[in-house]
Design a protein that fits this description.
By secondary structure, the protein is mostly helical. It folds into five domains: about 5-25 and about 120-280, Rossmann fold (3-Layer(aba) Sandwich), CATH 3.40.50.620; about 45-120, 3-Layer(aba) Sandwich (Rossmann fold), CATH 3.40.50; about 290-345 and about 355-370; about 375-435, no CATH class; about 450-525, Arc Repressor Mutant, subunit A (Orthogonal Bundle). It has helices at about 5-15, 20-30, 55-70, 90-100, 120-130, 145-155, 175-180, 230-240, 260-270, 305-310, 315-325, 330-335, 360-370, 375-390, 395-400, 400-410, 425-430, 450-460, 465-480, 485-495, 505-525; strands at about 40-45, 70-75, 135-140, 190, 200-205, 210-215, 220-225, 245-250, 275-280, 280-285, 290-295, 355. Helix 20 (about 485-495) crosses helix 21 (about 505-525).
Length: about 525
């Protein structure tokens, strides 16, 4: 281990004196007073793109583990990559989570701020400690020099990075540091790694069990020279410790950083959080028939906004994702043991360790089952809200008369044992019942109508008839015209709706009303 730097030199290296000592930070962010076994989790997206399905999947795990253990779920914005930051990305994340029922505890917690760009004083204070103890050092390598080093390493067949003999400034003395600073150079701060890749460390992962990985020997950057903000790795160390995160949930693509993060926690003498590395969300490729990772380019449903814009019930999406996470959930719900995923205990050890399959057809089933449980007024509210926010002009017209819409959507929802299950999304719901509105009704001109049936039924039609009386008249018309009752009813069904498959015809005709019924039948005579 190298000698540490003096406090005056640390101030020059960091561009200012550290605001806190480690003891002050420990006092400012003490261990949380929570019930035994409570999880403290964080969802930590970067505002560099849209909210994708994998984000929601990971955030759901974070939230569920905290919720079921009476713990704390935090939203932390990792906005230190200022070059890639996208406008409104943070608002999209916050709004998306809220719409899917995931709300953070930031407002009742004293462990913020929750934007990494606002935590610079914390990072610099920890970096100052490392510089003072000789566990980090200022590095004045330029980008061009680092590129040359990596090219040499590639040609020699070596791992690329700044380590060992390639870490030029690893043991630089104070006099040389001062010369660089006097020359106007701004250093990055690098970890002084004592790791040896020939040695292995063992890490417990809740999903994969105990896993062996090589020690880290790279002197990774802790504080960048460009903006003096931390790298992802260093911010992860400081934030997870001082926010007192107990369980880190992240995608399996981050497993390669475990050795580094374990090393940094041990260097600081801090307790290591528990790691839960989740599998990627996959789908079956329509062209190859093989399972592959979901793609931003190929799969529109990879963007969480897709489900909002298309009107998928957000609760149904959560139910389906929950079923992927907890293979026993569907059975428990079918048996009536739980009402929703929020009531089911998620066990980290049961989370799939390999590619989890996201199937839109299976999601359709969950959506149908979910919508079938909704009271009519709740269903109507969802449809109206969706149409007014995302729908086209026709959709907005459909929901303008709420009492009429309610009567339309109430058809075949009065018998819990035989409730209709043909609604999947709010958009599809409006499309499914579009024939109730004259401006959307499309006559079926290919169907061969029995004119005698239509004329005879009009002669007997009375809107005041109850269902038995109405059906008796349909049977009488069928006998008079020499056809079966089902054929007579089909003539009326197609004339009313333009379709051969609909819910209860009697209910449809009474919602349409006398004037529409007569007008539509007359159009086909």
């Amino acid at each position: 281990m190298r000698n540490g730097l003096s406090k005056d030199l640390i101030t020059r290296v960091l561009g200012g004196a550290p605001k806190y000592t480690l003891d002050e930070l420990e006092s400012k962010y003490p261990p949380r007073d929570l019930p035994e076994g409570a999880f403290v989790t964080r969802f930590a997206p970067s505002p560099t793109g849209y909210m994708h399905l994998g984000n929601l999947y990971s955030g759901l795990i974070d939230y569920k583990l905290a919720q079921q253990s009476n713990g704390v779920f935090l939203l932390r914005i990792e906005d230190t990559d200022t070059k890639r930051e996208i406008k409104d990305a943070v608002n999209i994340v916050i709004d998306s989570l809220a719409r899917f029922g995931i709300k953070n505890n930031n407002d009742i917690s004293d462990y913020g701020p929750y934007y990494q760009s606002q935590r610079k004083d914390i990072y610099h204070s920890v970096a100052a400690h490392l510089l003072e103890k000789g566990l980090a050092y200022p590095c004045f390598l330029t980008q061009e020099e680092m590129d040359e080093i990596r090219e040499k390493q590639k040609l020699a067949g070596l791992a690329t990075g700044i380590y060992g003999e390639y870490a030029r400034d690893r043991d630089i003395c104070e006099e040389e540091i001062i010369k660089h600073l006097d020359n106007g150079e701004v250093p990055s701060i690098r970890l002084y790694s004592m790791g040896n890749p020939e040695n292995r460390i063992y890490v417990k992962d809740f999903v994969r069990g105990s896993i062996s990985v090589p020690e880290n020997n790279e002197d990774i950057v802790l504080i960048k020279s460009t903006d003096r903000l931390p790298t992802y790795h260093f911010a992860h160390l400081c934030d997870d410790h001082f926010m007192r995160i107990t369980h880190v949930v992240r995608g399996e693509e981050y497993f390669g950083t475990v050795a580094l993060h374990v090393q940094m926690f041990r260097i600081m003498g801090w307790s290591l959080p528990n790691y839960i590395h989740t599998s990627t969300l996959d789908k079956i490729d329509e062209e190859t028939g093989k399972q592959r990772k979901m793609s931003k380019r190929k799969d529109p449903e990879n963007n969480v906004a897709f489900f909002l814009e298309q009107g998928w019930p957000t609760d149904a999406v959560i139910e389906y994702l929950g079923n992927i996470l907890a293979p026993g959930y569907e059975e428990a719900k079918i048996k009536g043991q739980v009402k929703s995923f929020w009531d089911y205990e998620l066990r980290p050890q049961k989370i799939p360790a390999s590619g989890s399959l996201f199937d839109m057809k299976k999601l359709e089933w969950w959506a149908k089952e979910y919508i079938a449980t909704l009271p009519v007024d709740v269903l109507v509210k969802h449809v109206v809200d969706w149409a007014n926010e995302y729908g086209n002009e026709d959709n907005k017209k459909q929901v303008a008369d709420v009492p009429y819409l309610t009567s339309v959507l109430a058809i075949e929802r009065d018998n819990p044992k035989r409730i209709r299950k043909d609604f999947i999304t709010w958009q599809q719901t409006l499309n499914e019942v579009s024939y109730f509105w004259d401006f959307l009704f499309v006559s079926n001109k290919e169907y061969e109508y029995n004119q005698d049936v239509l004329r005879s039924f009009l002669e007997t039609w009375n809107e005041a008839d109850d269902k038995d009386t109405w059906w008796g008249k349909v049977v009488s018309v069928a006998e008079k015209c020499g056809v079966k009752p089902g054929e007579a009813a089909m003539n009326l069904r197609v004339a009313m709706t333009g379709r051969t498959n609909t819910p209860d015809l009697y209910s449809i005709m009474h919602v349409l009303g006398d004037e529409r019924v007569r007008e539509r039948i007359n159009k086909h005579i």
